């Protein structure tokens, strides 16, 4: 298979591992900045590398619509197309089955969308999802799944789960680039532990290179996310990477690492940055707040990001009040570095077998 995964240390249920891909090694736990359209909003690949990014995520649905997977393939795959040249992962389009509910129709065979760009029909089956992703050339890619809305009742989720499992089998059958790309299955089941257990067991039997927990960032409260992750993660193969999709806040990730999760992605650091919200160990900071007007200090003392090393809170507030684009760039640099540094600190704590105390101290500070 195209990836190898070796656990180096444990601290309770938390794991520090090395994941080797065709495009390089990744140390876990790790966070994947989201580059939906083969671009992480506001940052160049050089900025991402300086921030400590090891891997970038892109999206199947969006890239298939524009510019088209064949054009991306012509440029050498998504990593070369965007000038990143490192490890990448693509989502299958399964989240769009949830998020674009008003322009899609789900059948047993697949999903029929009306393009959000021009209204043209776009039909995504498990086989087509694999075909697109193999053309995009990521190191890891996801099986097509159906993600029910948060809080869906047991019967609705059970019906949806049959589709997700059948689609996972079809994705495995369609997967041909097994020496260069690795297929991950996605555990669904909503907030229902029996369905989560069923899904984890079914997908484990498929013996895929990696596994994800999906459907836990669709409106559930933090305590429900934590409950489902704590229940589900141990039911996934210990020797394979575990990916919690679309999560989330620093607090969510700290708790999930403690349950044995290795991989994360989320739009929060980039999206919040565009709205003048930055993350710190003591909670979020609103850069538009008047109290920063004459503050000569950085966003966070001790942060090693380019923004905190270079400019003041007073300057950052000015940029946002003046609607200057550099404000969102500086804020994005900080937020991405904050998330990546959080992973680095978590890994160090696991290697030193002190993860629980590290997590609890940070959670107490964050409030």
Give the helix level as a range of percent: 40-55%
The top level CATH class name: Alpha Beta
Principal-axis shape equals: globular
Average pLDDT, all residues: 96
How many structural units, i.e. domains? 1
CATH architecture tag: Alpha-Beta Barrel
Overall SS class: alpha/beta
Rounded to an integer, what's the Rg over CA atoms?
Answer: 20 Å
The total strand number stands at 16
Strand content: 15-25%
Q: How would you describe this structure to a colleague?
A:
This protein is α/β, with parallel strands linked by helices and 367 residues long. It has one domain (4-266): Alpha-Beta Barrel (TIM Barrel). 42% of the residues lie in helices and 19% in strands. It has helices spanning 45-51, 60-65, 69-74, 78-81, 94-99, 126-136, 154-174, 193-205, 222-232, 250-258, 268-274, 306-310, 313-321, 325-351, 355-366; strands at 4-11, 14-21, 24-28, 30-32, 56-59, 88-91, 104-106, 111-114, 121-124, 140-142, 182-187, 210-213, 242-244, 263-265, 277-280, 283-286. An eight-stranded parallel beta sheet has the order 4-14-13-12-11-10-6-5. It has a three-stranded antiparallel beta sheet with strand order 1-2-3. A three-stranded antiparallel beta sheet has the order 7-8-9. α10 (250-258) links the parallel β13 (242-244) and β14 (263-265). The longest helix is centred in the last third of the chain and has 27 residues, at 325-351. The radius of gyration is 20 Å and the shape is globular. The model has no long low-confidence stretch (mean pLDDT 96).
């Amino acid at each position: 298979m195209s990836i190898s995964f070796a656990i180096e240390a444990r601290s309770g249920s938390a794991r520090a591992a090395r994941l080797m891909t065709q495009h390089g090694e990744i140390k876990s736990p790790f966070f994947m900045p989201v580059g939906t359209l083969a671009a992480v909003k506001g940052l160049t690949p050089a900025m991402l590398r300086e921030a400590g990014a090891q891997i970038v995520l892109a999206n199947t649905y969006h890239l298939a619509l524009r510019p088209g997977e064949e054009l991306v393939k012509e440029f050498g795959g998504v990593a070369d197309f965007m000038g990143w040249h490192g490890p990448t992962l693509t989502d299958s389009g399964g989240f769009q089955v949830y998020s674009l509910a008003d322009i899609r129709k789900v059948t047993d065979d697949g999903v029929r969308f009306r393009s959000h760009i021009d209204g043209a029909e776009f039909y995504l089956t498990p086989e087509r999802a694999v075909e697109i992703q193999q053309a995009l050339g990521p190191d890891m890619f996801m099986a097509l799944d159906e993600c029910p809305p948060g809080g869906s009742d047991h019967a609705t989720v059970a019906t949806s789960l049959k589709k997700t499992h059948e689609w996972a089998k079809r994705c495995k059958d369609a997967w041909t680039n097994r020496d260069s790309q690795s297929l991950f299955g996605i555990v669904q089941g909503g907030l229902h532990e029996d369905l989560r257990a069923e899904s984890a067991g079914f997908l484990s039997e498929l013996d895929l290179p990696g596994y994800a927990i999906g459907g836990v960032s669709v409106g559930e409260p933090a305590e429900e996310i934590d409950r489902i992750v704590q229940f589900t993660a141990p039911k996934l193969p210990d020797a394979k990477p575990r990916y919690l999709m679309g999560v989330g806040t620093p607090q969510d990730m700290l708790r999930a690492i403690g349950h044995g999760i290795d991989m994360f992605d989320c739009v929060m650091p980039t999206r919040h940055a565009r709205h003048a919200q930055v993350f710190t160990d003591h909670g979020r900071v609103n850069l538009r707040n008047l109290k920063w007007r004459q503050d000569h200090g950085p966003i966070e003392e001790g942060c090693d990001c380019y923004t905190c090393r270079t400019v003041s809170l007073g300057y950052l507030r000015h940029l946002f009040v003046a609607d200057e684009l550099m404000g969102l760039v500086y804020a994005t640099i900080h937020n991405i570095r904050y998330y990546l540094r959080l992973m680095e600190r978590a890994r160090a704590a696991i290697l030193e077998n002190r993860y629980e105390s590290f997590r609890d101290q940070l959670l107490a500070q964050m409030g």
